[in-house]
Amino acid sequence: MTTPGRPRISLLGTSALLFEAPGAFDLPHQRRIWALAAAASRWPGIREAIPGITNLMLTFETPPRELDGLIAALNDGWDAAEGLAIGGREIRLPVNYGGEVGSSLQSVADHCGLSVDDVVSIHAAPLYTVFALGSHPGYCYLGGMDPRITMPRRQIPLQRSAGGSVSIGGSQTGVSASPGPSGWHAIGHTSWTFFDPSWPSPAALAPGDTIRFEIKQVIR
Amino acid sequence: MIEILSVTGPASVQDLGRFDQYRFGIGTAGAMDDVALRAGNILLGNDENAAGIEIPMVPFRLRFDRDMAFALTGAGVEAEIDGRVIPPWWRSHARAGDLLDIKAMPRGARLYLTVGGGIDVPMVLGSRSTQFRGEFGGLHGRPLQPGDILPCTASAATIGELGVEPAEITLARPNTAADETIVRVVIAGEYDGFDAATQALFWSSSWKITPQSNRYGYRLQGPAVKPRVPIEKRSHGIVPGVIQIPPNGQPIIQMRDAQTSGGYPKIATVIRADLWRVGQARLGSKLRFEQTAYAEALAAEAEMSAYIERLRTIVRLIEEIRTCRSS
Amino acid sequence: MPIKLTDIARLAQILERSGVDTIEIEEPGQSLKLVVDTGPRMAASPTPAAPAADHSVIAKADVAGHFLAAHPWRDKPFVAPGQHIQAGAIVGLVKIGLLYAPIVAPAAGTVDAVIAEPGATVGYGTPIVRIRPPSGSSPIN
Where is each Carboxyltransferase domain found (chain A) (predicted)? Predict the structure, then answer.
């Protein structure tokens, strides 16, 4: 079940199945996940195919009686998956780094042995790709952060972190769409709207879209 | 319409949930005890998915502003309508101006108030359930407050009083001690990351439900259950019922308002047919896990469907008998 | 209106699927009793009405099933002798399959006696509770 180099497939009760791809947390692997998701969402009995970070959750419309067929289809699908290059939109997102919302900016700098300005410029440099949506409505998991500003998640999550928080959690970064608890470190704030249930597609961003953070100001 | 007069704790409008929006980061929300919500709707001749009010704490008071049928299911409560005592799991009829007073909740954790026709809040993304994070669905996406007016599609038809045997009695699990809830679980992805002794501890322990338990998740207290080596997963989708083990070794059962993804190791998942039992387990009470195979979990779901079907049929039978008599 | 054969057939079908073994319908001039044949069972014998004080009123079952004096989640029975009740008050339940049908007081008064035994099989019209109306309306007491 856990052969190295092979995917891991496990059950989430009778509601869903989780497929975890082997290999690195990078765009080529994620593109294969997107391809597998696109295929699996059309399989009979599957309600939704939900990409995570180099993994895929399939929720069941009707739980299959036998799982062997589905497991084989996932394994075959992964092997056959050509990376799906989604030509997403590019969003430029003005960010106020630091300040009240981004109050962890200094501690990230301290943890990484960098100056605040370095953290900001390193964070704002890459073109990030939306790998997946999840956690809470409209939240995007981004890939492409420079590992120099990696900081482990909080031991104890904050009860409430502001909507629009730009945060670092481990080697990932993301922007929260609404206020709520968070185990990540907020380094800045954006006032962009990521989610509105009245939109035809309620989330502003989709996997494959790209984000470039623009330094609006750095508040110390 | 219904006017909320007083509320204790986060009462909210819920239907069975929002099941096909995970790809936007939207969880299911929905009734924590879906069996009770369904039973109430069946008693009233509603669609089983009609929205009701989930009431987790008392006292709770409201006023009906016109004649309508209603039902109370779920937790065992001391309740009165216009001064008359309402038995548990009961359908009754309110007249315009009647006051419904929920005074105490000696049993269970969540009461469901359903009304003939359902609570008529707008359908948002396929459901009327309140989604707190993101603030939509239900009534303005938030818990109910005194002064709130809830629209109802209620029909004015009078129906007689009728009760249902509480699901806790009909669907009782064998060998359940008082003040203990036993739920069946299917092992999950990281189960093998725990050594045999730790796995045994997970099964044998009676887990205390801490006060930090709510619609988001149930945090349990007991012996520390930790994997052989710390496990941190890449963020992946999770569903209500998933039991995560955070670094302190104290399990968290994800519930209806849980985040849609997580990275803590998962030891098991509560099966869908038993998740309502968790939703009715009281803070401070004990919870025990019983391992079950996937095929058995499917059989348990089939049994649940059969129970619901049996309930629907017998309610229809009683209505038919009453119709024959009055015709 | 006479009960039609098609009604009976439909009721019988529902009955079979509902897990209930007996139903009774009674109207002036006709009565219907449907019993699902599930092997030997005790015949549903209506308890003969206790000789009632002249002015007593009787709360009767209106469906066949088992009499419950208390809700299973409640320690106390719905009514006890000596208790004053209003017209329409619930004095007990008839358990029919998964359902509890209420037995209601036809008039206000004081509970004289709970006639039916808890758990007993009752039928349509079985007397359950004897109620003594307020003394003003009763020349005997």
Answer: 7-205
- Per the CB < 8 Å rule, is A202 touching B266? no
A50 touches chain B (CB under 8 A): yes
ipTM field: 0.95
Beta-strand relationship, C127-132 and C84-85: unpaired
User: Could you tell me if C61 lies within 8 Å of chain B, comparing CB atoms?
Assistant: no
Answer yes or no: do B239 and A13 touch at CB < 8 A. Answer: yes
Q: What is the spatial distance between Cα A1 and Cα A116, in angstroms, rounded to a whole number?
A: 45
Tell me, what's the pLDDT at A171? 86
Residue with tokens 């953290």: A119
Domain of residue A62 covers 8-80
Residues 176-195 of A with CB under 8 A from B: 177-178, 180, 195
Reading chain B (327 residues) residue by residue, the pLDDT tens digits are 999 999 999 999 999 999 999 999 999 999 999 999 999 999 999 999 999 999 999 999 999 999 999 999 999 999 999 999 999 999 999 999 999 999 999 999 999 999 999 999 999 999 999 999 999 999 999 999 999 999 998 665 667 899 999 999 999 998 888 889 999 999 999 999 999 999 999 999 999 999 999 999 999 999 999 999 999 889 999 999 999 999 899 999 999 999 999 989 999 999 999 999 999 999 999 999 999 999 999 999 999 999 999 999 999 988 888 777 765
User: Do residue A94 and residue A188 come from a single domain?
Assistant: yes
Q: Pick the residue of B16, B22, B24 with the most A CBs within 10 A to test the interface with A by mutation.
A: B24
What's the pTM? Answer: 0.91
- In whole angstroms, give the CA distance from residue A173 to residue A169: 6
Q: Are residues A179 and A100 in the same domain?
A: yes
CB contact under 8 A, B235 and A135: yes
Cβ-Cβ contacts under 8 Å, B87 against chain C: 71, 74, 90, 93, 100, 102
B314: nearest CB among C25, C62, C97: C97
Report yes or no: C7 at the B interface, CB cutoff 8 Å: yes
Residues A103 and A195 in one domain: yes
Q: Which domains does chain B have, with CATH numbers?
A: 2-164 (no CATH), 180-292 (2.40.100.10)
CATH for A172? 2.40.100.10
For chain B positions 63-102, those within 8 Å of chain C (CB to CB) are: 76, 84-85, 87-90
Note the pLDDT tens digit of each residue in C64-110.
999 999 999 999 999 999 999 999 999 999 999 999 999 999 999 99
Q: Which of A8, A47, A63 sits opposite B20 (nearest CB)?
A: A47
Q: Dihedral, CA atoms, B312, B318, B323, C2, nearest 10 degrees?
A: 120
Task: Give the Å distances, CA to CA, from A4 to A1, A20, A220.
Answer: 9, 12, 46
Query: Does A54 share its domain with A72?
Result: yes
